[in-house]
Amino acid sequence: MPFEIWEDTRAQAIITAHAGHEGAMLPILHALQAAFGLIPEAAIPLIAETLNLSHAEVHGVVTFYHDFRRELPGRHVLKLCRAEACQAMGGDALGARARGKLGLDWGGTTADGQVTLDAVFCLGLCATAPSAMIDGRLVGRLNEARLDALLEQAQ
Amino acid sequence: MPLIQETDYGTPVSKAEKTVTLTIDGVKVTVPEGTSLMRAAVDAGIQVPKLCATDSVAAFGSCRLCLVEIKGRNGTPASCTTPVAEGIEVSTQTERLKQIRRGVMELYISDHPLDCLTCAANGDCELQDMAGAVGLREVRYGYAGENHLDAAKDESNPYFTFDPSKCIVCSRCVRACEEVQGTFALTIDGRGFASHVSAGIDQDFIESECVSCGACVQACPTATLMEKSVIDIGQPEHSVVTTCAYCGVGCSFKAEMRGTEVVRMVPYKDGKANHGHSCVKGRFAWGYATHRDRILNPMVREKISDPWREVSWDEAIGHVASEFKRIQAKYGRTAVGGITSSRCTNEETYLVQKLIRAGFGNNNVDTCARVCHSPTGYGLKETFGTSAGTQDFDSVTEAEVVLIIGANPTDAHPVFASQMKRRLRAGAKLIVLDPRRIDLVRMPHVEASHHLQLKPGTNVALITALAHVIVTEGLADEAFVRERCDWDEFQDWAAFVAEARNSPEAVSAITGVPADAIRAAARLYATGGNAAIYYGLGVTEHSQGTTMVMGMANLAMATGNIGRRGVGVNPLRGQNNVQGACDMGSFPHEFTGYRHISDDVTRATFEALWGVTLDAEPGLRIPNMLDAAVDGSFKAIYIQGEDIAQSDPDTQHVVAGLENMECVVVQDLFLNETANFAHVFLPGSTFLEKDGTFTNAERRIGRVRKVMPSRSGMADWEITVAISNAMGFPMHYAHPSEIMDEIAELTPTFAGVSYDKLDALGSVQWPCNEAAPEGTPIMHIDHFVRGKGHFVITEYVPTDERTGPRFPLLLTTGRILSQYNVGAQTRRTDNVVWHHEDLLEIHPHDAEQRGVRDGDWVRLQSRAGGTSLRAKITERVAPGVVYTTFHHPETQANVVTTEFSDWATNCPEYKVTAVQVSPSNGPTEWQSRYQGISEHNRHIADAAE
Amino acid sequence: MSPDRLIYMANQIGKYFESQHRQNAVDGIADHLRKFWDPSMRRTISAYAKNGGEGLDPVVLQAVRALSGVGPT
Predict the structure, then answer these.
(1) Whole-angstrom Cα distance, residue B368 to residue B912?
(2) Where are the domains of chain C?
(3) Which of A38, A107, A114, B269 could form a disulfide with A69 if both were Cys (CB 3.0 to 4.6 A apart)?
(4) B621: which chain C residues are within 8 Å (Cβ-Cβ)?
(5) CATH 3.40.30.10 domain position(s) in chain A
(6) Which residue does chain B place closest to C11, by CA atoms?
(7) How far, in Å, are A6, A33, C58 from residue A29 at the CA level?
(8) Hey, which residues does B114 pair with through a beta bridge?
(9) A53–B443 CB contact, under 8 Å
(10) In this predicted model, what pLDDT tens digit does every residue of B720-765 receive, in sequence order?
(11) Superfamily (CATH H level) for A76-154
C-alpha cells in the first residue's frame, strides 16, 4: 500500500491530533505508521516534545513493539506465526521454506521491495495452526502448498 | 575510618504511621505498613539475595532472586514487591528457594564474562556477591550459546564507562535516572534477549540526554557502569565523610580513598541535604585538586609587571605583615581591608574577619556574598528577623505549590532540583518567574502551570501585582496575619498593593507579562495549599534586590505560607558556604550571627574574648573598597578565595582599583584573574586538604574532613593565623574545632554547635543552642524571630539601566550545570566537555535583525565595555533579551556589566545590562589586551632567574 | 571617594525610605547610612551636603545634614 513520504509538519499534525488523549503514545505511533509505513528516528523528538517525555522513553516504547517499523516494509507483508502451537504443527519448517524461497531472514524485505517476511508470536488462531497473515488478512491451516501460493501471489 | 558500607534495604522506606508485625525466619519484626518483605527482613537482620532491588528506587521485581515463601500462601513471591502483612510467617531460606536462586544465577552467569579477577568491580560487585550467596558452582549451559559478551563498550562520558557485556538488564540505572535524578535519559531498548540499556535513542551517553549525575553508576550492581577513576586506580580501601565544596546544596559525600589518593566521591545516603544523590560537579569534578595548574609555593613580587618569585612561607607571611603595617602607618588604619570567601570553611572565614577587625583594627571586611545574596540577608532580617532561608530542603516534599523566582535549580542546584522534580511529578504545581525559559518550565514529566516571563529588572512590579491580586480578591490569610504580623503595617501594605497602579493590568505594561497570567499565578500561590518560594540571584542581583526579597516575604506572610513544612521563603545559595560566610560576620557592619557592630553589648563580648578594642563603625564593602582604591585612599587588600577581577561587575573598574593598590594579597588555589594584579600569592588548600565546616542554603552545618595532606603545606586557616601572628595579633588554634568552639562561645545561634555534636548527628541546622539543641529545620514556627512579621512597602523603582537606541537589548546572566561560577575548578576538569566556552543566547528575531547566525562570533557591548563570544540562537530568551554565563575568563562577561547596584547592600545589578549585539570577527581589543597582560603577569621566574 | 557615586547611592536609599509610610524617611535614611556606610563615606557626603548638596534629593539632603555631628563621624 502506498505510504506518505515523511514530513515533519505532517507528522506533527498527526501527533498533535492524538496528544490530548490519555496514554497517547501508542495511538500516535499507530497513526504515524499508518500514514508513513514506519516510525523513523525523526519521529522520536517530535513525540517526546509534544508529550513532554524524554527521547529515551519514546525510543523504549518504539523498540519494545516489533510491529513498529524502523524501515519501510515491502508492498506485501507476510507474517508467519512462530509461537508454540504453530511450531508444534510444523510452523518451523514452513518458516524455513518461506525464508529459503524469498532469500530473506526474519524481518527482511526482498530487494525489489515486493515482500517483507515477519515472524509473529501468536495470531490467536491456535486451533487452525499453523497460521499466517498476509497484508492484514488471516490465513489458517497453512501447508507448503498454501504457503507457496501466498508467496507467489505476493511476489 | 574503614571503607563505609552503607546498608542497602532493597526498597525505599515506608512513611506509614501504622505498623505491622510479622515473622521472618522465626524472627519477629515490626515495621511500617507498606514496607516490603525484603526491607522488613533487613530490619530483622536477614539479607535476602537480590539484584534488581536497591533502596533508592521503587521495587521492580524483575531479577527473581529475592523470592521467599509465605506460610499458607502459594508460590514464591518476590520479597521486594510483596508488602508485609500482619502475622504472616515468611521463610527466606528453604531448599526450594535455594534451588530457584541457584538456577536464576546460573542463567545470569551463562551470559556474563568470567573475568572477575581483572574486573574493575572486583570486590564491589553485587553479581559476584550473589553468585557467592547462592552457592553457584557451575554453569551447566556452557558459554557457547548466544550471548552479549562482544557488546561494545561506551567510553564517551569522561567520568564513567558503560560496558553492556557486563549488563544484567536489571534496569536499576534506568530507574535511578527516572526516580532519583528525574532526567529519564535511559531506557531499555527492545525486548527479550535483545533488550539492552540505551541512553537516549540508542546513543552514546555523551550524545544523549544524560546529565552525568552519577545516579546510574551508583545504582549499577555490576561493572557495567563504572567510574573511570576506579578502573584506573582500583578499589578504595577507606572512606572519609565530607561535604561537597560546590553549590549551596551542601551534599554529603564519602571520599573513597586509597591512601591519600581519592578514588571516587560517592554521595552519602545519610547526607541530610542530598540523601545519597549527587550531580556532575560534586560526584566527578574534583580532579582540579591535583591539577598541574595548582600553585604550591608562596610567591612575592615588587610590581605586578614583575615575574613571580617563589619564596618560603616565612618570607611570604613576613612580607604581607610588613607591607600591611607599612601601609597602615603611611595611609592610616583604614587604608587596608580584606575579603572572606564563601568557598572556604566557616572557621577560615571567621578567622579572616577576626584578623581584620582585631588585627587590622578596622571593619573593612566583606565577602563574595556581597555580589550574590547580600539582599537576602538584609531583606529577610528586616521582615522575619533572620538573615536566612526558612526551611530545610526536605520541606519541599510537602509543598503543593512551588514558586521559583530568578533561580535555575536544574543547572545551579541540581541535587535539590531532583528532589523538587520528584515532588512536582507527584502533583505539586509549579510557577516560574524568570525572563528566560529555564528547563523546569517544561522538561520531561515537569511542566509549570505558569511561566511569567518578565522583562529583566521588573521583579518588584510583578511581586507587587501578585500581592495586589491576593489582597483585592480576598485571598490573604487574615487570621495568620492578625496573629503573627503587625496588623497596622499589613493594612498599610494592603492599601498600597491594592492601588490601581499595582494591578496586573497596569503592571503588565512594565513587566511584559499578561495580566491574566499574573492573576492566575497569584490565585494558585494563595489558594493551592502549601506554597513555597525558592529564589536565586535573579531576585537579588538588581538595583531593587533587597526590595524584591522583602516583597516575597510580604507575599508569604500575607498568605500564611511561613512557619511550617511545605512553605517558606528559601534562597538557593550559589556557593557552598555563602550562608556560612555571612553567618561568620563577614559583612563590614556585623559580627557573627548578624549582630551590628555598633551594639555595645555584643562588641564588648568580642572585645573581652579577643582582648582588643574594636571599631564600632561599619567598614567598606567590596565596591566601596574598589571605589576608595581608585580614589587612592584604600591601599592594601587580603583576598581569600575570591576572584573579584572575574566575578565582580564592571571589570575595568575592578582592575583600575586593584592596579591602584600597593599590596594585593591573593590566597587561592590557582593564579586567578585577580592574581594578575597581586603582589603576594599565598597558595590555599582545597576542601579535601583541611578540616572545617560549611553551612548550606538550609542553614545546615556540615563537616569538611581532611582526606589528604595540604599540597601547599598550609590550610587556609593556618595561613590566616600566621599572618595574624606576624601582624602582632596572636592567634592560637591547634585545630579548626577550637575555632568553632570560639564561634559557639560568641554566637547565640551557634551556642550548641561543636565538632563532637556534628560527629554525632552528622550535621545540624542553626539556630542550635539550649532552646534547640539538635538544631532548627524550620524557622518562625510559633512567632517570627523579630517578634511580629514586618510588612514592607515595595514601591517599584525602575533601574536607571535602560535600553535605548544605542543599547536596545537587555543582558541577563546565569550559570550552567557543568560549570561553576568563575570556573576556576570546573574548567580544570573534564566538565569542559559539556561547556567549553560561554555563549550568548539570543532570540531568533533579534539574531535575524542583526544578521547573526547560530555559532557566529558577536560583539556584546554595553556602556561599561565590550566583549566577544559566540551566539546561540534560541527561544529560551524572549525577544529583546540576551543571556550568557560567566564561567570563562576569556569571555570576560563582567566587562559588560555596570556599576549599578542594590540600594541597600550594593549587590551589583548583574541581571540587567543594556547592550547591543553585532556581528564580530573575534575577541575585542580589551579581551586581546587583557589576555596579553594576563599572560605576562602570570609569569613565574625560574629558580635561577 | 567620589561624591557622584555616593550621591547616586544615597538617592537610591532615599527612594526606598520615602515609600515607607510608617517610618520617617529622614530618620530611616540617616539610620541606614549610619549602619551601613563607612565613616569616610559619610564624611564625604556630609561635606558635600554642607556645600549645597546639589543632586541630592531633598529628603536625602535633610538626612545627610542630620548625620553631621551625630556619632563619631
Answers:
(1) 19
(2) 3-67
(3) A38
(4) 36, 38
(5) 76-154
(6) B903
(7) 14, 6, 71
(8) none
(9) no
(10) 999 999 999 999 999 999 999 999 999 999 999 999 999 999 999 9
(11) Glutaredoxin (3.40.30.10)
For the residues B159-163, what does the mean pLDDT come to? 98
Give pLDDT, residue A42. Answer: 96
pLDDT digits (tens, 9 = 90+) for B625-649: 999 999 999 999 999 999 998 888 8
Contact of B505 with B586, CB cutoff 8 Å: no
Q: Establish if C52 touches chain B: CB-CB under 8 angstroms.
A: no
pLDDT at residue B944 in the model: 52
For residue C73, what pLDDT is reported? 37
Cite the beta strand spans of B219-370 per DSSP E: 225-227, 238-243, 252-258, 261-267, 299-300, 309-310, 336-340, 365-367
Nearest by CB to C38, which of B492, B617, B794?
Answer: B617
- Stretch among A112-121, B931-940, C60-69 having the lowest mean pLDDT: B931-940
Grid coordinates belonging to B750: 551557634
Domains belonging to chain B, first-starting first, are 19-93 (3.10.20.740), 299-372+578-765 (3.40.50.740), 376-571 (3.40.228.10), 809-937 (2.40.40.20)
CB pairs under 8 A between B and C: 68
Q: How many CB atoms lie within 10 A of CB B718?
A: 19
**CA gap B558, B480 in Å, rounded:** 8
The per-residue pLDDT for B86 is 97
Q: Is the pLDDT confidence value at B914 over 80?
A: yes
Residue B824 has pLDDT above 80, yes or no: yes
- Between CA B388 and CA B770 the distance in angstroms is 20
Distance CA B227, CA B155 (A): 10
Contact across the interface for B201 and A64, Cβ inside 8 Å: no
For testing contact with chain A, the best of B187, B440, B451 (most A CBs within 10 A): B187
Residues B313-336 as b/e (b if ≥16 CB within 10 A, e otherwise) read beebbbbbbebbbebbeebeebbb
HEC letters along B140-188: CCCCCCCCCCCCCCECCCCCEEECHHHCCCCCHHHHHHHHHHCCCCEEE
C28 confidence band (pLDDT: 50, 70, 90):
very high
**Residue B49 has what DSSP assignment?**
P
Smallest CA-to-CA distance from B852 within B923, B920, B925, B922 is with B920
Enumerate residues 6+ apart whose C-beta is below 8 A from B802. Answer: B914
Tell me the helices (H) and strands (E) count for chain A, helix number first. Answer: 7, 4
Residues 6+ apart with CB under 8 A from B887: B815, B816, B819, B820, B821, B822, B823, B826, B827, B835, B838
Q: Average pLDDT, stretch B393-403?
A: 97
Mean pLDDT taken over chain B: 94
Say which range, B240-244, B472-476, B934-938, has the weakest mean pLDDT.
Answer: B934-938
Q: Cβ(A37)–Cβ(A73) under 8 Å?
A: yes
- Cα–Cα–Cα angle for B494, B496, B498, nearest 5°? 65
Residue type, A84: E
> ipTM more than 0.85?
yes
